[in-house]
Each structure stands twice: as C-alpha cells, then as structure tokens.
Design goal:
Length: about 210
C-alpha cells in the first residue's frame, strides 16, 4: 500500500520547544577544554597539562556463564578502580616539565585533584589516588618554530568515583565545597616558585625548597 502524506512523521515546533526545555534543565554542555589536573604539592604545574584522561565510574567486564541447554547469560562484576590514561605536558623555557618529571621519578607516585572547571571555581572535584606517570621523550626539531615542546605521559592510577569526590557546588561562581584553604595554599606555593625562578634560582632547587 502506498504511503500518503499523513503517514510520514513530522517534527513540530512544540516538540523542539519541549526538547529545548529539557536541554536547559540538563545544564550547559561541558567543553572538552574545561577541566584542570592538579598535582598535590606541585599545584602550579596544572596550567601546563595540555590534555589528560578523565576517569568515570564503571564496572569491570561482565562475567559470562552458560546454563543447562546452552543458554548464555552474563552477570555484573565489581567496580573498576584501577585506570590507565594519558596526558600531555607542555615544556617551558625554565624547564618546568623536566623538573616535574624528576620530582615524579623521585616520588614514584603522586595524588592529583581533577577539577571540572578551574581550581578556584569548579563544579566538581575528584581525587585521583597514587598516580604513576611514565614520560616519553620529547622531540627537538630545529625546523619546527611554531609548536610548543610536548611531553607525552602515560598514567596509571586509582579512582573511586563519587565516593572520593571532594565536593560540588550548584554553580561555578562559588568556591567548591570542602576546599577549605587548599586553593590559597596552592597559590602561595606557585607564587613562591615563580619568585624563586625570577631571583635566578635553578628550577629543581627552587621546587625542592618550597615543596619539601
């Protein structure tokens, strides 16, 4: 039987308005550039993390099993707590990325805070525990005068989802709940490091004296 014009589905302006209202209730779209990865103890390095992997709460792969007669089924497993990812770290002419790699090598592992937003104005903040980082060598190219030097980093860490959330706020204009004086301490350490560099101190010695 041939279709008539009344058979086709038509999206109406009322449908679009309902979708618009629902979208507004869900919140604004988060841009991929929104976020900060802050190493605890080296908080000033957050600006140099160009990109990084963001974990999400999930389960391990389902457990498959068979019942009599050949029926195949699956069962949920336990939550995933060990994650792997990557990051990209921008180098500066004062050697900040090299110094941070040295600090990570000496420490072995480090805790991080992942912010949805800025450290001083965040919607959410989550703890990343015992992160290990492996740095790949950076490439020096005398003909490449238009791109920054980037260190590619492999990460392995523990993440426990909302159970290790540091808090959240209803809007980005407020300081994150339970942040206390952490942000002020971060700023003091970053300013102290910059002051040490401006005074002519070597990067690693300036860091070690401040973050020891």
């Amino acid at each position: 039987m041939a279709n008539t014009p009344n058979d086709r589905f038509v999206v109406t302006i009322q449908d679009m308005f309902q979708d618009f209202q629902t979208a507004q209730a869900l919140g604004s779209v988060m841009l991929a550039s929104t976020g900060a990865l802050v190493p605890i103890g080296y908080e000033h390095m957050a600006l140099l993390f160009k990109s990084f992997s963001k974990p999400v709460s999930t389960l391990l792969d389902p457990a498959e099993y068979f019942l009599a007669g050949g029926l195949q089924m699956s069962a949920p497993t336990i939550p995933k707590t060990l994650f792997e990812g990557s990051a990209a770290l921008i180098e500066t002419d004062t050697g900040q990325a090299m110094a941070f790699a040295e600090a990570m090598q000496l420490a072995g592992e480090m805790d991080f805070i992942l912010y949805d937003g800025r450290p001083d104005r965040a919607m959410r903040a989550h703890q990343i525990h015992k992160c290990k980082m492996t740095f790949d060598i950076a490439e020096v190219d005398s003909e490449n005068r238009s791109q920054p030097m980037i260190f590619q980093v492999q990460m392995k860490f523990n993440y426990f989802g909302l159970t290790s959330s540091l808090g959240n706020t209803g809007n980005a204009g407020n300081i994150i709940v339970q942040a206390d004086d952490a942000i002020a301490k971060f700023t003091q350490k970053a300013n102290a490091t910059l002051a040490g560099l401006q005074a002519g101190n070597r990067v690693i010695s300036a860091m070690s004296s401040i973050f020891a």
